[in-house]
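Researcher: Let's do a round of design. I'm pasting the structure tokens now; please hold your answer until I've finished.
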């Protein structure tokens, strides 16, 4: 039986809903199911790739999927099935499980599976073990969008659209939650956290969060915060229930394995309707390096190792491919695997 998470009631009470329209719970679930079934990758993609692009399409095998640490890569197929492949040989056999997710991520034996069940009409953040057995499940509202697990496997975060369906416009709303698998502390929305903006306490009805990434201490995290037309990189303190802004024009952060750099997407010429440029911030020097990927990347990139980023790009028909690019601005983008998305390095 799944464990039941508890909500920490010591946090500040939720503020009124942000300005972008949010739907009632019933409508949100109905919208989520319909949108998820119709658009398997609703929030990844503004770049349309050529149908002539070629990359390994690993053959499926019936072997059991186990997420023990090793030189393997976790992904989802175009139909949402959890799979693993040899990171160094993506054209080899792809182990395909029966478990389905809309977004997935894993670390240290903890699997976060954000899933919209079209039959039951529900959306849940499923916490699975290394053998894909469910440990617990958290009810979620909205269209599955982002998911992350801390390096230790303790902390889990997710983001879902609850209004609109694209970061390229202002007419959207997200809800981002964090769950501590050790203490069972649950926050279904970061909007209960206190905000320090430019060094001063800040409140606004339009605050939105998305794209969490955790540090090794399982308390500090980075994410995106939207307010008044700005998209800020924020640093959060889970124990203190606070966040503070660090810099503007910064979305979907992804912390490097050594904790020194953050991969992110930034709006081209400050205009998200033109797409996003995949870049890397050095936390020590505050220097930003643009990667060699010049096409728009609307994804939360994952670090395959200390020097390589992986991210999804979407075709006209909604299918996605996994691409990689060096994090230091060198080289060029390479197609890693066709019909795959939501990458996570297991070793």
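Researcher: That's everything. Go ahead.
Model: Designed sequence:
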């Amino acid at each position: 039986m799944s464990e039941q998470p508890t909500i920490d009631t010591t946090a500040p009470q939720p503020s009124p809903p942000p300005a972008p329209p949010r739907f009632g719970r019933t409508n949100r679930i109905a919208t989520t199911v319909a949108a998820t079934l119709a658009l398997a990758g609703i929030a990844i993609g503004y770049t349309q790739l050529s149908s002539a692009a070629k990359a390994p399409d690993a053959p499926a095998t019936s072997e059991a999927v186990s997420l023990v640490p090793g030189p393997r890569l976790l992904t989802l197929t175009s139909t949402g099935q959890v799979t693993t492949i040899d990171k160094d040989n993506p054209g080899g056999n792809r182990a395909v499980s029966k478990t389905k997710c809309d977004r997935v991520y894993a670390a240290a034996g903890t699997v976060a599976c954000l899933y919209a069940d079209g039959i039951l009409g529900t959306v849940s953040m499923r916490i699975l073990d290394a053998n894909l057995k469910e440990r617990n499940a958290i009810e979620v509202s909205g269209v599955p969008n982002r998911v992350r697990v801390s390096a230790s496997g303790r902390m889990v975060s997710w983001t879902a659209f609850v209004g609109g369906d694209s970061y390229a416009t202002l007419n959207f709303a997200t809800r981002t939650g964090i769950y501590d698998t050790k203490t069972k502390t649950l926050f279904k929305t970061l909007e209960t956290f206190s905000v320090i903006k430019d060094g001063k306490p800040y409140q606004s009805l339009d605050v939105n969060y998305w794209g969490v990434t955790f540090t090794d201490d399982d308390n500090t995290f980075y994410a995106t915060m939207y307010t008044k037309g700005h998209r800020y990189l924020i640093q959060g303190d889970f124990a203190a229930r606070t966040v503070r802004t660090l810099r503007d024009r910064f979305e979907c952060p992804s912390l490097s394995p050594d904790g020194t750099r953050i991969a992110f997407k930034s709006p081209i010429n400050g205009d998200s309707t033109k797409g996003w440029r995949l870049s890397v911030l050095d936390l020590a020097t505050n220097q930003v390096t643009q990667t060699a990927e010049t096409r728009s990347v609307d994804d939360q990139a994952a670090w395959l190792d200390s020097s390589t980023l992986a991210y999804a790009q979407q075709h006209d028909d909604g299918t996605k491919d996994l691409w990689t690019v060096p994090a230091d601005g060198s080289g060029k983008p390479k197609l890693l695997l066709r019909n795959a998305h939501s990458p996570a390095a297991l070793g």
